[in-house]
């Protein structure tokens, strides 16, 4: 999740999470090394177009960005359901979903849950399909019940580790991404 002073409390409130993302992403950007092309408020042109925006990205409205973040990166991937159980974890999934895609964020959670289920002793492995449904939520509930003494913090660390490894791999595979690596790691992890 973003490095904000109230990040533990902010994860419970999607409006605060969105404000934090937009504060870090900033207004209009068209960095030559960014494959996403023009962005405003952190929303890429392709995402804005997929939601019906046809204008110049320099004029992409703030309220449309907020609506996209809420719909595409919070409600659709069911991070709101995760938030009811583990708000800080949900905030991290939201942030990761924006930068890497919600399915990748959900897979990080699923992989972490599978790796932490003690070979199926605590709950059965779940599919790493990138979809948060009843089985993923059930596994999360069982994990948190079993590990009430810090389970959310451990899951958060596991998701952040997977996220960090992916950022480094992206920079290794495409040297132009090195322009973004420091920001990705400093603003999005821990």
Kindly describe this structure.
Helices cover 61% and strands 3% of the residues. The protein is mostly helical and 190 residues long. A three-stranded antiparallel beta sheet has the order 1-2-3. Strand 2 and strand 3 form a beta hairpin. The longest helix has 23 residues, at 151-173. The model is unreliable at 1-11 (pLDDT under 50).
- Low-confidence runs: 1-11
Structural class: mainly alpha
Major sheet size, sense and barrel closure: 3 strands, antiparallel
- What share of residues is helical? 55-70%
Features:
single chain; 190 residues; mainly alpha; three-stranded antiparallel β-sheet; 10 helices; 61% helix; globular; disordered N terminus
Kindly summarize this structure in a few lines.
The protein is mainly alpha-helical. The protein has helices spanning about 5-10, 15-25, 45-50, 60-75, 80-85, 85-100, 100-115, 135-145, 150-175, 180-190, and strands spanning about 30, 40, 45. Strand 2 (about 40) and strand 3 form a beta hairpin.
């Amino acid at each position: 999740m973003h490095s904000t002073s109230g990040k533990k409390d902010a994860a419970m409130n999607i409006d605060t999470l969105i404000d934090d993302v937009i504060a870090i992403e900033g207004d209009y950007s068209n960095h030559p090394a960014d494959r996403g092309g023009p962005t405003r408020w952190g929303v890429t042109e392709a995402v804005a177009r997929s939601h019906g925006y046809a204008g110049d990205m320099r004029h992409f409205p703030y309220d449309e960005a907020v609506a996209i973040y809420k719909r595409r990166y919070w409600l659709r991937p069911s991070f709101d359901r995760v938030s009811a159980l583990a708000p800080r974890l949900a905030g991290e999934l939201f942030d990761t979903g924006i930068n890497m895609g919600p399915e990748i964020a959900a897979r990080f959670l699923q992989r972490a849950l599978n790796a932490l289920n003690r070979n199926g002793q605590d709950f059965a492995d779940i599919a790493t399909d990138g979809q948060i449904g009843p089985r993923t939520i059930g596994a999360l509930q069982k994990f948190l019940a079993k590990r009430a003494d810090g389970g959310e913090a451990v899951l958060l660390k596991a998701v952040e580790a997977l996220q960090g490894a992916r950022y480094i791999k992206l920079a290794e595979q495409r040297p132009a991404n090195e322009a973004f690596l420091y920001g990705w790691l400093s603003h999005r992890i821990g």
